[in-house]
Amino acid sequence: MIRKLSQLIFMIMVLITTGCIKETYDMNKLSKKVRLSPTIAISAIKGNILMSDIVKESDTVVFDQNKLVKIVFKKDSVINLTLADFFIVKNMIELNGNDKLLPDLNILNPGFENIGQMIATIDPDTLNLEIEDVLSHISGDLIISNPSIKLSYSNSFAVPVEINLKAAGVRKAKTVNLDLAPFILTVPQFPDQQDISDTYTADTTNSSLSELISLPPEKIYFSGTALLNTLVKNSQYGNYALSTGRIIGGLEVEIPLDFRMNNLQFTDTVDNFIKDDGSSNDNSVKPENFELLRIDVTAKNGFPFGVSLKMSLYDSLTQTIKSTVNATDLLEPAPVDSNGKVSGTTDTGTSIEFTKEFFSAAGKADKIIFQFTLNTTGSGSKDVKIYSDYRIDFNAALVVKPDINLK
């Protein structure tokens, strides 16, 4: 939506700078001693912004049955362990002369429970969220309320296996750890069941996942260990393990758009598209010749966050800002119910006024910096949810008062 708001401003500014105003007047019919200063309002843009237009469903973006928008990242084969990763079978048999391999079932007998504890390493892996470019434009406070990491696994060890999963989110020099306590995998009930599939979920109740995701991270690093513990008896049948036994697991990071924002800023820098390139002739009406040049924006906002805009002319050579236009409360947030879902719309009217000084400074700047500041309903004091049917309806009009001196 930030991009669309940027495009809205761009489109209006294009109307200003392409010379469309000069076509309103037939200069040949006017006295050369006349000075004109009429105020003119031009309906420029009317439209809407829908959440479903901004974000399309894909492997990464999902709309649930209630139209809540979720972001999902998946990583297969984070855990892939066999019996050999814990120990070598022949060495295990040598450690206990009562153990024996049963060829008919291809399993180890209950004496396997006497071996003790064995540890395997979960190979380090990385989930690259590929959002470095987006994060480079963002600053401020963002709290993701209800993220989760699901470990979906298949286990064919009828032996208690404890997983110690380590994860850390990294953004530049900052790191936040998952802080998830070790957990026990569900085991198959041998001999009737030789394999079992299940899911373990890490969320805000048992980890620091909210803090990790709210970083927000560029990458998430995973590692860990698996402890096979035969000192704990699985069931009345004792501990069994297939010689072909294995544990396979993949991770799914799910981030519902359930969050709060406090002065979250998105900054984007573009080439100065209002700078006079010298190609216009002397008869052109230039923006700096206007006594008044204003954009009036009215909107009916159905999103639970408000937006303020700052537009600055920037000289990259001297690294200085030449002039700035502010549009506070460009959008005011919609109200939400106790569950964080929008319960209505908010009408907003804002004027963005450009001065002569601003356009005079345009010739000294090669860039324009757009800075959007966002706050959720309640100034970031409550969680809000984003649904795919949210929308904004808006109108924008250009109001000009040219100062035309006919010489």
What does this structure look like?
By secondary structure, the protein is mainly β. The chain has 2 domains: 2-57 and 259-405, no CATH class; 69-256. It has 7 helices and 26 strands. Strands 8, 18, 20, 21, 23 and 24 form a 6-stranded antiparallel β-sheet that branches. It has a 5-stranded antiparallel β-sheet with strand order 3-4-17-9-14. A hairpin with a 4-residue loop joins strand 20 (305-315) and strand 21. The protein is elongated and about 100 Å long. Mean pLDDT is 80; it is low at 7-36, 88-96 and 98-111.
- Judged by helices, strands and strand pairing, the structural class is mainly beta
Average predicted confidence as pLDDT: 80
Count of separate DSSP helical elements: 7
First-to-last CA distance? 46 Å
Q: Please count the beta strands (DSSP E, at least 2 residues each).
A: 26
Gyration radius over CA: 32 Å
* Whole-number total of structural domains: 2
Helix proportion range = 10-25%
Stretches with pLDDT under 50, minimum 5 residues: 7-36, 88-96, 98-111
Strand content: over 45%
Q: Overall 3D geometry? A: elongated
Biggest sheet, open or closed, and with what strands and sense?
6 strands, antiparallel
